[in-house]
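Weekly modeling sync, notes
Attendees: S.R. (lead), two postdocs, one rotation student

Agenda item 3: backlog of single-chain predictions. S.R. asked that every request posted to the team notebook include the full sequence so nobody has to chase files. The rotation student volunteered to paste the first one in as an example of the format we agreed on. Action items at the bottom.

Example entry:
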Amino acid sequence: MRPDHLDETPFVKLSGVHKTYEAETGNVRALDPVSFGIDRGHIVSVVGPSGCGKSTLLRILAGIDPATGGQVVIDGQEISGPVPNMGIVFQRDLLLDWRNVLDNVMLPAELARANMDETRSRAVALLSELGVGDFLNRLPFELSGGMRQRAAIARALLMRPSLLLLDEPFSALDAMTRDQMNVILQRLQQHERVTTLLITHSIAEAVFLSDRVVVMSARPGRVLDVIDIDLPTPRPLSIREEPAFAAIARRIRLLFEKEGVLAA
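Predicted structure, as returned to the notebook:
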């Protein structure tokens, strides 16, 4: 698929988005023009080497960091600032140490002055689905890293966001816990159907979770390819051993090898 591929009517559409940071020692070009779309209810992963502008792209999409040029359109509206009705999960869970798990998840509802009874019921249901239902009254320091990230995901989903942004949320977890979180996120996506952008360094994670993978070059980041993942869902972890999965992962690795990102 060509790097400049765009859906006809995507929920999220990036067109020629680029970013240059100004500095006293000289301007730094972080992103060359980037274009792709995310269909409503789909997961798109952006995979690329460190420093390629993946997180910059996410911040631009969130309306936190303005682009130098190009256009970002969400649900037909061009964005020019922070996006309402959006959930974000970062590498660190950012839970508040003095609030228990349930109170941490309820924070967006408090800030939005939402109906507390309804949102509390949803918070409990989300935490239960994520396997943290027995730890509602525990403080964050009493939880493992994986459990803390589950709580962070529940918090991001509490207010039923139209867009979920995940910035390498599992990068600090051990391999087995990361696999477990991939399965949990996939199952949750089957229920919630929230439009999602996932930033990751992991080729296997990107292919396993996504409807589409955007492959980025080294800085300044540009789109090397946009690959539709035509694999059945839901996907068991064992699918990573299947020839079709391996072929997609190999295609992505070859792109990085040609770029000199990976040793050939």
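Discussion: group reviewed the output briefly. The mean pLDDT is 91.
Action items: rotation student to repeat for the remaining queue; S.R. to check formatting next week.
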